[in-house]
TrEMBL record, chain A:
It comes from the Eukaryota. Transmembrane segments: none annotated. The lineage of its organism: Eukaryota, Metazoa, Ecdysozoa, Arthropoda, Hexapoda. It is found in: Lysosome. GO terms for biological process: cellular response to amino acid stimulus; positive regulation of TOR signaling. Signal peptide: none annotated. This is Late endosomal/lysosomal adaptor and MAPK and MTOR activator 4. Keywords: Lysosome. Belongs to the LAMTOR4 family. GO terms for molecular function: guanyl-nucleotide exchange factor activity. It comes from Agrilus planipennis (Emerald ash borer). The keyword Transit peptide does not apply. The keyword Flavoprotein does not apply. One of its GO terms (cellular component) is Ragulator complex.
Automatic annotation (TrEMBL), chain B:
It is a lipid-anchor. It is found in: Late endosome membrane; Lysosome membrane. It holds the Pfam family LAMTOR. Keywords: Endosome, Lipoprotein, Lysosome, Membrane, Myristate, Palmitate. One of its GO terms (biological process) is lysosome organization. This is Ragulator complex protein LAMTOR1. GO terms for molecular function: guanyl-nucleotide exchange factor activity; molecular adaptor activity. The keyword Membrane applies. SMART domains: LAMTOR. Belongs to the LAMTOR1 family.
Length: 94, 170
C-alpha cells in the first residue's frame, strides 16, 4: 500500500464498516469509511441498459479538484486510497 | 434464595438423589480440592468448648476454620480455569458457523447478500496503483453531465388536449 504514488492516506474497511487498517489523512477516519461504504451499498444493480453484460465495477473514483479517492473491493474488504491531484479542475465528479 | 441458602445447610434428601430441586446449589464446587465435608456451626462450637486448650487443638481449629471457609466460599474463577487453546477456538468457530448455517437453512433466512456495485478483485494494489482519471476524461464527463443537466432542465410539458374530459352523460 505504501508503494502507491501520490497517496495521502489509505483505509481498509471490512464488510461491517469497521476500519481494519488506516494511515495518513485517513487514519482512523471512521466517518469517511462509513460514507464510502454507504456509497458502495446504495444499490446492487447497475443500469442493465448501460451495462448489459451485468458486470460490476473494478474501481470507483471520487474526484475533487485537488485530491481523489480510489476505491476497490478485494477479499471482501474495501480498500480506499486518497491521492493528491496536480491538475486543477473546479468540479466534483463521481 | 433457596439455592444460595441450601449451599450452607445440610443437603436435603431430594438434592442428594441427584434430582434438581429449588434447593439444589446453582454452582457445584466440584473442583474444590479441599474436602467438602460440612461442619455445623453449633457442633463446632460445642466441640471446641469441650476440648482442652492444647496447641494441636488450636492448630486443628484453625485448620477447621480454613476448611470451612474453603467449603463455604465458591471460587468462581477457579471453577473454570480451563484455558482455550488456539485449535479449540478454531474447532468451536467451525462448529458454530455450521450450526448457524443449519439454523439459517432451517428457518429459510436469506443469506447476507453482497450488495455492492464493486466486484471482488484479487489484487487491489494493481487497481489502486493506476493513475487517477485523466483530465480529458474528467472534462468529457463534466461536459456530458452539464449537457444532460441542461437537457433535463429544458424538459417542458406541452399542453395538447383538455385535461378534463367531458363524458356524454345524458
Amino acid at each position: 500500500m505504501e508503494r502507491i504514488p501520490d497517496q495521502l492516506g489509505h483505509l481498509v474497511i471490512n464488510e461491517d464498516g469497521a476500519v481494519l487498517m488506516s494511515s495518513g489523512d485517513l487514519e482512523n477516519d471512521e466517518k469517511t469509511a462509513d460514507i464510502i461504504l454507504n456509497l458502495l451499498n446504495l444499490t446492487d444493480e447497475i443500469d442493465p441498459v448501460a451495462f448489459p453484460s451485468g458486470d460490476k465495477f473494478k474501481k470507483l473514483s471520487i474526484t475533487y479538484s485537488d485530491h481523489c479517492y480510489i476505491i476497490c473491493l478485494s477479499n471482501r474488504k474495501v480498500h480506499v486510497v486518497k491521492k493528491a491531484l496536480n491538475n486543477e479542475w473546479p468540479s466534483v465528479l463521481v | 434464595m433457596g439455592c444460595c441458602y441450601s449451599y450452607f445447610c445440610d443437603q436435603d434428601s431430594s438434592s442428594q438423589n441427584g434430582e434438581p430441586s429449588e434447593r439444589t446449589p446453582l454452582v457445584n464446587p466440584v473442583s474444590n480440592s479441599i474436602n467438602n465435608h460440612q461442619i455445623n456451626c453449633d457442633d463446632y462450637l460445642i466441640r471446641n468448648a469441650n476440648s482442652l486448650p492444647k496447641k494441636t487443638d488450636e492448630q486443628s481449629a484453625l485448620n477447621r476454620i480454613l476448611q470451612e471457609t474453603a467449603t463455604d466460599v465458591i471460587d468462581i474463577a477457579a471453577l473454570d480455569s480451563h484455558n482455550l487453546q488456539q485449535h479449540e477456538y478454531l474447532d468451536r468457530m467451525k462448529q458454530y458457523s455450521l450450526k448457524l448455517q443449519q439454523a439459517c437453512a432451517a428457518n429459510k433466512l436469506p443469506q447476507k447478500n453482497n450488495k455492492s456495485i464493486l466486484q471482488d478483485i484479487p489484487q487491489p494494489e494493481k487497481v489502486l496503483m493506476t493513475a487517477p482519471l485523466s483530465s480529458s476524461d474528467i472534462s468529457l464527463i463534466s461536459s456530458i453531465v452539464n449537457k444532460a443537466t441542461t437537457a433535463i432542465s429544458d424538459i417542458k410539458i406541452e399542453h395538447k388536449e383538455e385535461l378534463v374530459a367531458s363524458f356524454q352523460i345524458p
